[in-house]
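Fold this complex.
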Amino acid sequence: MSRLLDKRLLFVTGKGGVGKSTITAALALKAARDGKRTLVCEVRSHERISALLGQPPVGPEIKRLEPNLDAVDIETSAAFREYALMKLKFQAVYKVVFENRLMKYALRAIPSIAEIVTLGKIVYHLGEKQNGRNRWDLILVDAPATGHALTLLRTPQTILDSVPAGAMADEMQHILDVFRDPKESGVVLVTLPEEMPVNETIELDRELARTVPLERSAVVLNGDLPFRFAPLELEAMQARRNDPALRPGIEAAEAYQRRSDLAAKYVEKLRAEVKQPLARVPFRFVRTFDRAVVESISYDLAVVA
Amino acid sequence: MSPVASEALKSALARQVVICVGSGGVGKTTTSAALALQAAAMGKKVLVCTIDPARRLANSMGLASLTNAETRVPDEALASTGARISGQLFAMMLDLKRSWDEVIERYAPNPQARDTILANRFYRQLSTALAGSQEYVAMEKLHALHERGAYDLIVLDTPPTTNALDFLDAPNRVIDFLDADAMKWFTSGAFAGAGRVGLRVFQAGSAYAGRILARFTGAGTLEELSKFMGSLSGMYEGFKERAGQVRQLLASERTSFVVVTSPSPLPMEEALHFHRQLTLAKMRVTAVVANRVNVDFLRGAPLHREALAAAAKEIRAPGVQGLGPLGERLADTLADEQVLASLDAKQLERLAAQVAPTPVLAVPRFDHDVHDLNGLWQIDRTLFGS
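Structure:
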């Protein structure tokens, strides 16, 4: 298996609220630090990555965040316009088309169009050249949550099955070729040590294996709670519960360790069901999730990245 | 919990419909189930319609196979809470595809149209992938259940939307999707390129748009979409009528909304947004429930690391090695928990100020999974007292 950040295209996905954007941002910082020219693509996002890195929203144009690190927000209608102009070359009529309210309607009515332009834009950047070499060493996609991510990643095959030979079929075939090459691309699954996220990750892993030719490259367990107190200690503390100097500490220790045990149980379940390399990112007890925290997380990811 | 807040939440259960809204992962399903259980304890015949329950929670409510069917939670299961529950609790899981099929089966103008729709490839997208589709079918289900009048109360859990507005907006979006003008366009053969003589600009634009779309999707796809829209057109008025009725039900005295959140910044923002939008739309938000609130183990007192370390020296746990001094770990853990507790307290204060006069009810973080009726009952004790 090639190293994660040596690939050229990585999708980061998982259940809503598990910290996909944080993990994407941390991977991006690590890649940039390793000297890779990195582009982060946010998809239908709330522009979280730029905020995590202490930057204003990036918008639909590529923007430099720091050395080796650029970001872009892929918004469907802007991407569609760009993609259509670039690929289909119908400048002369684009105004008539795009200012047509029915066209906007069709963009919504045929959901795969949003996916096509999103992937199309990502793969376009993958092929972009500058001074005779690839403009980007690595593209990281902060992909939508599980269900939408599956829809997005299945789109090339779905479209290929339904369009006749031609430009669109070639385009989808090209995307599938990128997907099929584990040196080129992969998916990172982010999860939390909790029941629903872990179950969803296991199911997502199976669904991807069944329907998308991308390599599932790594699993990141976010918000892990490492073991802190031994059972013998907790037992010994019991006798001291009524000591006012100790009581809050004992209660906090018990609460922490219960959650830590629960987390360990879910890690075990995950390991039993999903065979990809696993990075455990300890929960951060912090007031704000700023760049420094994201940077510290980027070191936790070294085991898989 | 303040008795006023508990009473307010109880008053919600006296209505016919309670809708729990909020962003994903904040415990909306659990809260919905806990509210339904409380209503049952108040003697009501109540149905909780959940979207995506954890399997163990579903199992504990008797939803073994996670179906679209309303299932009565057995009395023995209710008795396991140790409480005297005189009402009846029913639970169901909303199956998106199945519910859409029901809508089509029930309202298609004739069997032929029904079969055409159910077999169409675009139907799958409408029923699973269209933005707002899940919310829409939840409303259709609510309409059907409410119309039947079999329950004193229906508690509706809502899909984890990324956009707070999706839920309220869903009927409009689906109606928009079925827009009569657009339908005319799709069914008029605009993509065939066989324009009529003397095309006006609008039509010319549509024809262009059609041809360009066809380059993305292939002409066959558009023909199929066109056929699909044609077969749906007979149902358009019905969709619109029921959406209007549901909207009326939601805005009436019979319905109340409960906003569910956690004290984390993002869900909090979503909750505030929800509260604002619902209030603007003249819906009744009875309460905000904040789950997983971290506990202040120091109860407001400062942390004295040295005193703690000194006291901890007395604790002997022979054979435990390599973990470092216990006193330091206790102090660190207390400090860590303290960070979360004070953050949450601040967030809740801000929340309460911004949603006032709507009461905010805080449910402490449980250090175990809430996955059975017992756990739900424990939440109810926190929310409603004993």
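Chain B touches chain A through 75 residues (CB under 8 Å).
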